[in-house]
Amino acid sequence: MRLTTSSSTLSARLLALSKVFNSKNTMPILDCFLFEVSNKELTVTASDSENVMTAVIPLDEMDGEGTFAVNNRTIIDAVKELPEQPLTMEVDMNTYAIKVIYQNGIYNFTAQSGEEFPRLLPLEDNTASILVDAKTLVNDISRSVFAIANDELRPVMNGIYFDITPEALAIVASDGHKLVRILNRSINNSTPMAFILPKKPASLLKNVLQKTDDDVIIRFNDRNANIIFGEGTLSCRLIEGTYPKYNSVIPKDNPNQLNIERNLLLGVIRRVLPFASDSSQQIRLHIEPGKAVVSSEDIDFYTSAKEEIACDYNGMSMDIGFKGSSLVEILSNLDCEVVTIKLADPSRPCLVVPAEQDDKEDVLMLIMPMLLND
After folding, report:
1. 272 and which of 180, 282, 305, 335 could share a cystine (Cβ 3.0–4.6 Å)?
2. Edge-first strand listing for the sheet containing 303-310
3. For position 373, what pLDDT does the model report?
4. How buried is residue 307: exposed, middle or buried, by Cβ count under 10 Å (0-12/13-18/19+)?
5. pLDDT classification of 374: cutoffs 50, 70, 90
6. What ranges in 98-236 are assigned the alpha helix state H?
7. Would you tell me the crossing angle of helices 199-208 and 134-144 to the nearest 10 degrees?
8. Using CA of residue 164, residue 150, residue 21, residue 114, what is the dihedral sign?
9. pLDDT of 51-90, one tens digit each?
10. Cβ(90)–Cβ(102) under 8 Å?
């Protein structure tokens, strides 16, 4: 069997698919890419047994069809340094000997049978589907993946919750200390449905969808999901269980509102945070009409920092504590110029939202305050 394709296209697809692999596998075949050649296309698949991702690569020339598996490090090392050029692979389907021919050289190595390779997870009955714009989906995943928990006792928190209602699609992630909820009102369904996407496939989608502008089809049932995008498919197991009622923890009325430039506040926190205690990472925010003071201290090492900034605040004077790294993550994952921070009192959840939002989208981030040691 002989096939010819673009070296840069092959290298790009292999590097994207390589993120599926685990560092250690119980089955040697899971260290391999599956190559399937048919209909003048090369379909490359990577799997860790729970996540299976494919990419389709057009072929310039093809002579014969077949399936074989190649060690991922071998083939990636062979093609990643090649400049753009036609790349020809000759495969002996009896011995699985592979010859890769490029402009000024040749590689020889051995493949293996692909019969034991895990295939796409089949979807059974009761399948639902939604259609999402790729750019919207990657933006929503990018803004929420940081809030996913890593909790062995509550596995339902270890993913992104997709909650489709007659009003909107809500994308939610929370670790119990911070929460992200993004409402997309352009996507809805008359029958409510939901699923929990684990962190790994969410991160895989974040990487591959940045390179496509096509719509994404998400088909899912109670256990599995097939996500179809422009260059391939991702099949994954979903997290089973009931996600907590996230709307119940979002306060309806936080009357004290602080409007401030996002990058200004982010810069101040990053400068002050290194002087906080390593264990708590606590920063103190003192706010009063016209100004905010961000401070931190580590009494064990006699370090402290304080910086004052101007702001627009219409509430009562308040001192409130936050975990600095969590507040940095929240501010870093918003893309607006000005944020509105909504507060009730130093012991209740605080909301961080863009000062101006699109009519079709509602982005909300919640952070729990920390008790100040006064």
Report:
1. 305
2. 303-310, 291-298, 282-288, 318-323
3. 79
4. middle
5. low
6. 134-144, 199-208
7. 130
8. negative
9. 999 999 999 999 999 999 999 999 999 999 899 999 999 9
10. no
Q: Could you tell me where the DSSP H helices lie in 117-238?
A: 134-144, 199-208
β-pair type (159-164, 318-323)? unpaired
Q: Rounded to an integer, what distance in angstroms lies between the CA atom of residue 269 and that of residue 233?
A: 40
Where do the DSSP E strands lie in 83-214?
A: 86-92, 97-102, 105-110, 128-133, 159-164, 169-174, 178-184, 193-198
Closest CA to 212 of 196, 228, 226, 188: 228
Question: What is the C-alpha separation between 314 and 255, in angstroms, rounded?
Answer: 9
Calpha distance 124→226 (Å, rounded): 11
User: Which residue matches tokens 């401030």?
Assistant: 260
Please tell me whether residue 104 adopts helix, strand or coil conformation.
coil
Task: Count the alpha carbons within 13 Å of 312 in the hemisphere toward its beta carbon.
Answer: 8
pLDDT (average), residues 21-47:
92
The CA angle 230-18-47, to the nearest 5 degrees, is 80
pLDDT for 228: 93
Stated pTM of the model:
0.92
pLDDT value, residue 121 = 64
pLDDT at 126: 78
Q: What share of the chain is helix, strand, coil (3-state, %, to 5)?
A: 20, 45, 35
Tokens of 39: 């209909």
Tokens read off for 240: 């089973």
At residue 348, what is the residue type?
R
* pLDDT score of 162 more than 80: yes
